[in-house]
Specification:
The protein folds into 3 domains: about 5-20 and about 45-65 and about 195-425, 7-stranded beta/alpha barrel, CATH 3.20.110; about 65-185, no CATH class; about 445-525. It starts with a strand and ends in a 39-residue tail after the last helix. A hairpin with a 2-residue loop joins β2 and β3. The protein is α/β, with parallel strands linked by helices. Strands 1, 4, 6, 10 and 11 form a 5-stranded parallel beta sheet that branches. It has helices at about 25-35, 40-45, 55-65, 75-80, 90-95, 105, 110-120, 130-140, 145-150, 155-160, 165-195, 210-215, 220, 235-255, 270-275, 285-295, 320-330, 335-360, 385-400, 410-415, 440, 445-465, 470-480, 485-490, 500-515; strands at about 5-10, 20, 20-25, 50-55, 70-75, 195-200, 280-285, 305-310, 315-320, 370-375, 405, 425. Helices cover about 50% and strands about 10% of the residues.
């Protein structure tokens, strides 16, 4: 039997939360201990499994800062201080971070932690003794550990006790956390060295690369949207994001990636030309983009790599199965883990049967089912952070005679060598959210932000030749950061989350710093929030979108 190839990609990303050496949001550190170290640890137990891990450079840079002690966040600092040393103001701030996360999975199952949360909600913290404050500090870290970390001492003992923690317990957890931050890099490098995984990356600061090349890409992706006038159009920035990303992966992992997941699956001819120019062999997007490009294709024909080629440049493009990816992102967290894994396998069987029925058995030699999703946001909705589901899924995929897992690089290498691989000379501009860029440029807040960014970028072009090297590099770094997709994700009224306004503040901070580095006075509009909607003050635990379009919640 010809086995159906399955290509899994976990996308690890956090935007730049830093102002100086302070991260204003703690998600990089918390997801490192709960997810970025955890997924590779589980993978190690399945040596036949092949997975592609996509690590964004700005995430790796922040993780490196944390592991070297150069970056801290308020949540981490306050939960590491002896309770006696906490001022009243410190305690109020600590409570803002004490219960972030999906309460149903990360708080409610633990009696003591649940009681502390109920006390805080009832305003009863004035009666707390040193012990209550110490217990909540310890639980703030215990709750954000993956299951493999919870099975080592002294963590198992702390979980069994559940309360009456000591200062030594708190300090041991802080030390364990530092070790896990180091382990993220070591475990990923180890999986690659053993041939079990591939590392890919994204443009450095996670921009929507087609919009950076030219905001006029919306003329194709979203023809009902009025294009930005004048447009944002800096192709050289797109090239810089890609080149800096490749350099960063060499620096942090000793690896030059062959592939790049474009942020949000965003794609266009301009973006593909940039990737090919920089030597990338593969990228990926969503099957909706392919069907917009080639409406004549049967759905089963989407399960194959295609080669985009133009002006002598070539790059392989794969298109994810949205239904399977979203099943992991949204559906299976509420299922029995084994039943969810079995359902995933059954869906693959149906895909294989449809392929053979419509394309013939021989098509399986080049067919592939790409499954791509964020590697951090969904797991806190799963039982035990997703470990039972992942082990069930990985076991089925590893032992199956019907399927085999492959890396995206393996698929690309074969596709480039195969003279029968289907080729494209044009791809429809779009993203993995409905083939659209609307989320990032469709709302008046988005458009205002792009206009402010465009003006700052234009001034840099005018002034850069007169700037000293350090000032020029500093200004450019802040401008590239401001081009990131995450700020625009939260502008507009599509998403609601706690801490949402911080993204507005960070966007304006980076632009103000760019003006400062250029020796220019920041425009007055940078002192006023861009966000005008009232969707930012509702507290939903950590950072979870209320509307779930076609992908995992983003930004925490």
């Amino acid at each position: 039997m010809n086995r159906l190839r399955v290509a899994l990609l976990w996308h690890f990303h956090q935007p730049d939360y830093r102002i100086g050496d302070r991260a204003v949001l703690p998600w990089t550190r918390l997801h490192a201990t709960k997810d970025y170290a955890e997924l590779p640890a589980i993978h190690r137990d399945f040596p036949l499994l092949r997975v592609t891990y996509n690590v964004t450079p700005i995430l790796a840079e922040q993780l490196d800062g944390y592991r070297q002690g150069q970056v801290q966040d308020e949540c981490g600092v306050l939960s590491a201080i002896a309770p006696d040393a906490l001022s009243d103001a410190d305690r109020r701030k600590l409570l803002q971070w004490a219960f972030v996360g999906n309460a149903a999975r990360m708080i409610e199952p633990f009696v003591r932690y649940r009681q502390l949360k109920e006390d805080a909600a009832a305003g009863a913290t004035e009666r707390w003794t040193r012990q209550e404050w110490l217990d909540v500090q310890v639980w703030m870290r215990l709750a954000w550990l993956g299951e493999t970390a919870r099975r080592v001492q002294p963590v198992t003992g702390m979980l069994a006790r559940g309360r009456d923690f000591t200062d030594d317990d708190r300090e041991r957890l802080v030390a364990l956390e530092r070790g896990l931050l180091v382990a993220v890099f070591e475990r990923l490098r180890g999986l690659v060295a053993d041939g079990h995984a591939e590392l890919s990356t994204s443009p450095y600061y996670h921009p929507i690369l087609p919009l950076v090349c030219s905001s006029d890409a919306v003329r194709e992706s979203d023809p009902d949207l009025e294009p930005l006038d004048p447009p944002f159009r800096w192709r050289q920035d797109a090239v810089e994001h890609v080149r800096r990303a490749l350099d960063a992966m060499q620096r942090y992992f000793g690896i030059v990636p062959r592939g790049m997941w474009l942020s949000e699956g965003s794609i266009s001819d301009d973006a593909l030309a940039v990737l090919a120019e920089c030597g990338l062999q593969w990228t990926a997007s969503d099957s909706a983009v392919l069907l917009k490009t080639r409406s004549d294709l049967r759905p089963t024909q989407c399960y194959q790599p295609l080669v985009w080629q133009r002006n002598g440049q070539r790059i392989v493009v794969l298109f994810r199965d949205a239904a399977l990816s979203d099943a992991i992102g949204f559906e299976y967290s509420q299922w029995n883990p084994r039943e969810a894994a079995a359902d995933f396998a059954e869906r693959l069987r149906r895909i294989r049967a449809q392929i053979t029925a419509h394309e013939g058995e021989a098509f399986l030699s080049r067919a592939v089912v790409p499954v791509i999703l964020d590697g951090e946001n969904c797991w806190e909705y799963y039982e035990r952070n997703g470990e039972p589901f992942l082990r069930a899924l990985y076991g089925l995929l590893s032992e199956s005679e019907e399927f085999e897992t492959v890396t995206f690089g393996q698929v690309a290498e074969q596709a480039l060598a195969d003279g029968d691989t289907l080729t494209l000379d044009h791809i429809a501009a779009g993203s993995w959210i409905g083939g659209s860029f609307r989320i990032w440029i469709g709302h008046p807040e988005d458009r205002r932000a792009w206009s402010i960014l465009r003006d700052a970028r234009s001034i840099f072009d005018e002034r850069s030749a007169q700037l000293e090297s350090d000032a020029r590099q500093r200004a450019y770094r802040h401008l590239l950061t401001a081009e990131g997709s995450d700020w625009f994700w939260w502008f507009g009224d599509e998403h609601r989350a706690a801490f949402r306004r911080v993204f507005d503040e960070l966007f304006r901070y980076h632009l103000a710093e760019a003006y400062c580095a250029m020796g220019e006075t920041s425009p007055e509009e940078l002192s006023e929030p861009i966000m005008t909607t009232d969707a930012s003050d509702a507290v939903f635990g950590a950072m979870h979108a209320v509307t779930l379009p076609t992908r995992s919640p983003h930004g925490d």
